[in-house]
């Protein structure tokens, strides 16, 4: 029997993406973000999350994805400290759809050349026998390597 992995499915730039659920601490609605002067473009700023100062990263510019979502649908996925070297970090995404359980047989590996610097762990596919719940027929969900994204683009 194939192993399964739980992922959080979310929208970004009108497309569906996923990250490992064990890296997500919580999902919060958008709250006011305080910009940080001279910060890189992908650093949206800081939020006060129940007394914890949390750095917020905007995934769309970081991954060169057009930002099509409105502020009302955006969410912040706060990452586990293990994913960020112990820092409080959240990432802005479009709407969060669901948590889905993915069978390894429904994950397609891609070439390094298409992986945008290795930020893609695989493509979750649907439509065949044993298709994943929460994935529409014919839909592809890009499974992001959030650990690599954090390691390569932040000082965490």
UniProtKB/TrEMBL annotation:
SUPFAM superfamilies linked to this entry: CheW-like (SSF50341)
BP GO terms, sorted: chemotaxis; signal transduction
PROSITE patterns membership: CHEW
Pfam families linked to this entry: CheW
CheW-like domain ranges (all copies): 4-155
Coiled-coil regions listed: none
Annotated SMART domains: CheW
GO cellular component, one term: cytosol
UniProt-recorded name of the protein: Purine-binding chemotaxis protein CheW
